[in-house]
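Suppose you are handed only these lines of text.
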Amino acid sequence: MNNNPIGILDSGVGGLTVLKAIAKELPDESFVYIGDSANTPYGSKSKEEICARTSKLVDFLISKQVKLIVVACNSSTVSCLEELRKEYPDMPFIGTVPVIKTAAAVSKNRRIGVLSTTTTAKSDYQKRLIEEFASDCTVFSHGSDDLVPLIERGKERSEEMTHVLTKVLKPFQEEGIDALVLGCTHFPFVEDQMQDIMGKDVQLLDSGGAIARQVRRVLEQNNSLAGEHPQTISIFTTGSIDIPKKLLQDTFGNKAVEYGTYAYEYNN
Ligand code: DGL
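From them, the structure of the protein bound to D-glutamic acid can be written out as follows.
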């Protein structure tokens, strides 16, 4: 048994969709979340910069005595998960990658789409997932860095968002896919709008549930699930706390959620 919190990090507010999934699977755990909203999006940054910034977030979570870290960011996972595991050998890490295996399992017409940030779309990590799990499917992969900044600005239900989504999703519609992988943890915040555009015959698949089940498995294996304890939920951001507050509205019912800001130094 271990009552220390689970740490979750992302380039911004996207990992909150993963936090929600984990909190649903493991409602008695405590959590510390850090989103790097001041420096988002990561998708258009170099691998070196993504890794350096992700390490800063890991150090912050370690300073909060977390027992496990969820890298709730596809861009960070494909850029530096392996390095993080080497750099912090005593910390269990769980990464986030597009659920291509699930898409291949559910697609009936064997035509699947993967929408992610450009970093994830170009990554060898994603290419390997496609080769390993979807070699019998035609896979349309597309990276866009236009959606994350809008979600970061709280514009998930705006005309601007509808315009960008319509443009970004058009190629997938033209290719006649029947499963669309959301390869960025920000995207579930606009899942309803995506579903409206793609139509009900296209299944949208995000990573939250799979990550939550993996967190449970790892904590069980390590005998680290929380027992009875005063639960704490702390949300930190390098940006403004208004957007995470809005996005988490109603998520935790009457449980107390603490919000705070954090700044770190980054030198090129
Ligand atoms: N939520 C991050 C992800 O899953 C967004 C990355 C970015 O900031 O570009 O990749």
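What can we learn from it? Strands lie at 6-10, 31-35, 68-71, 93-94, 111-116, 138-143, 179-183, 203-205, 233-237, 257-261. The CA atoms of residues 36 and 158 lie 23 Å apart.
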